[in-house]
Amino acid sequence: MQPTRNLVTGGAGFLGSHLVDRLMQADEEVICLDNYFTGRKVNLAQWIEHPRFELIRHDVTEPIKLEVDRIWHLACPASPVHYQFNPIKTAKTSFLGTYNMLGLARRVGARLLLASTSEVYGDPEINPQPESYRGCVNTIGIRSCYDEGKRIAETLCFDYQRIHATEIRVMRIFNTYGPRMLPDDGRVVSNFIMQALRGEPLTLYGDGLQTRSFCYVDDLIEGMLRLMNSDTTGPINIGNPSEFTIRQLAELVRNSIQPNLPLISKPLPQDDPMQRQPIIDLAKKELDWEPLIQLEDGLTRTIDWFRKQL
Ligand code: NAD
Ligand code: UDP
User: Fold this and answer.
1) Atom of ligand 2 nearest to the CA of 195
2) Residue 130: its pLDDT value, please?
3) Span of the secretion signal (predicted)?
């Protein structure tokens, strides 16, 4: 039997490179597309010379012709600092990138998995969030390029399914952390770890009482693989349902690295969601999936990795 031919867009990034590892370890073929905006070749260093692996510098806003069985569509900056750097490009990446990948999926009969996000729920009025919640997104704010970009990407997937019978899988990813996050990407886990390792104060935006639910990358990728291999279209929440305030996260990181560091306040960015927690009943039922790694364990692994990078 021929190995499955996978296309991973955004494969040089944080989640993409962990997915590539799992696909390569399963003896599959992988073509990775990336424009290196936030991705790094070093994340894929172990596969570069491998005969089943190919890396192409390509921007998903441009069409491409390839023969593949599965498309894992992850290309899009994910950290607010990065997606707000060029917001028009972010919206273009989400819309045109997903449109181009769906066009490819349709032409070659591939199944496409979209890496969507909990950001489609915006600043949610209900907590925790089920997949049926339609969200509370500001269409004109500084996060909109990303949130609305992912919402139209989901819409495109479902219209391709209805009109062209394209096989789609839509995954709503909640905050994920782990090795290979960029140290300067501005996300809260990498910021706190880097600040603590450098002996600097940890920066709480606002009062630090806003919440997030943090999923360790290995759990997340397991959920992604199960969704692609399942008969479930989604949208489906994949995340860790344990909810923490940002202040609690700061205390956990500080206590693991330098317990006497101060926490300082900075202004809360515009439209910053006040709460976020997934309901994962659907993932449990349809994919027999739930996260296994507790925040303390995941943070220890992530801190070890960041320490080695310094
Ligand atoms: P990341 O920034 O590390 O990875 C994104 C990758 O896409 C990078 O390698 C980047 O260079 C590439 N890319 C960006 N624009 C591109 C373009 N126009 N053409 C080709 N490549 C492009 O981010 P990540 O955390 O690995 O996120 C991966 C996906 O998962 C994204 O679609 C993101 O929206 C989604 N997601 C991530 C999280 C999270 O917590 N990490 C949460 C929700 C959703
Ligand atoms: N945050 C913080 N200090 C930081 C970076 C982020 O308090 O140094 C907060 C941010 O305001 C948000 C939460 O942490 O409320 C998560 O931010 P992140 O950018 O990681 O993810 P997102 O907001 O996209 O969920």
Assistant:
1) 8
2) 98
3) none
Q: Whats the size of the chain, residue-wise?
A: 310
Asked if CATH classification 3.90.25.10 holds for the domain at 188-210+243-276+300-309, the reply, yes or no, is: yes
Q: Closest ligand 2 atom to the C-alpha of 143?
A: 24
Question: Is the CB of 117 inside a 6 Å radius of any atom of ligand 1?
Answer: yes
| Ligand 2 atom at shortest distance from the alpha carbon of 79 | 19
Which stretches within 165-263 are classed as H helix?
Answer: 188-197, 217-228, 246-257
Distance 259 CA to ligand 1 centre (A): 32
3-state secondary structure of 284: helix
The mean pLDDT of the chain is: 98
User: Of the ligands numbered here, which is closest to the C-alpha atom of 174?
Assistant: 1
The string of pLDDT tens digits covering residues 67-76 is: 999 999 999 9
Are the beta carbons of 106 and 168 closer than 8 angstroms?
no
Position 286 scores a pLDDT of: 98
150 lines ligand 2 (CB under 6 A): no
ipTM of this complex prediction, to 2 decimal places: 0.99
Topology (CATH) of 5-176+216-240+277-292: Rossmann fold (3.40.50)
What is the pairing mode between strands 243-245 and 211-213? antiparallel
Helix or strand run (H / E) with residue 57: strand 53-57
Q: What is the mean pLDDT of residues 265-270?
A: 96
Residue 1 has pLDDT above 90, yes or no: no
Domain ranges of the chain: 5-176+216-240+277-292, 188-210+243-276+300-309
